[in-house]
Amino acid sequence: MKLNRSELERGFNNKLFDIPAEGLHLKDVRFEDDRMECTLSAEPIPEGFKLTGTLKIRFIESCDRCLESFVDEHTSKVHCMLTPNEELIDGTEPEVILFTGSDHEVDLETIFRELILLEESFKRLCQDGCKGLCSICGINKNSAECDCRDDSSDSPFDVLKQH
Ligand SMILES: [Zn+2]
Ligand SMILES: [Zn+2]
Fold this sequence. Notes:
The protein is α+β, with helices and mostly antiparallel strands. The protein folds into 2 domains: 2-130, no CATH class; 131-163, no CATH class. The chain is built from 3 helices and 7 strands, in the order E-H-E-E-E-E-E-E-H-H. A hairpin with a 6-residue loop joins strand 4 and strand 5 (69-83). The termini are far apart. The model has no long low-confidence stretch (mean pLDDT 88). One zinc ion is lined by residues 63, 65-66, 68, 125-126, 130.
C-alpha cells in the first residue's frame, strides 16, 4: 500500500484503507476475502511524518486439533515514522522508515508484513478446548459424538496398572 507525499503533507485522520493481500508476498498466510482493513492517521512532525492507526487482520486458519477452517481476527496497532533523517534509522526498529525529499511516495508493505507476522500465532485452535478429531473414526468431536473407545492412551499410569 502506497501513500504519496502530497497526501501526507495535507495529513488525514482515521482514513480507511483497503489492503489487498496480494502484493504482501506472504504465501503461507490466508486472509478472509484476501484483504485487510487499515485505519490510518497521518500528521506532519518535525522529523517527517507520523502515521498511527490500526490494522484489522482476519486470518483464515486451520485448527491444529480438528482441522476445521476458522477466522481468527487480530487488531494491530500501527505506529510509524517516516523521516529523511538517516540517523534515526538504526535497523532495529522497523517502524522508522526512510522517506527522503526526493521520494514521492512511500510503500507501507514492510510495516504491514511485520505486523502480520507478529500476529500470526503458533498455536491455532478454533476454540479454547477444541475436542479435536476422534483418533479412531476421525469424527469431529466438537460437532458429533461417537462410541469409539480410545485405548491408545500412553499415560504412565496405564503402564503401572498392567503390572
Ligand atoms: Zn478445532
Ligand atoms: Zn470415533
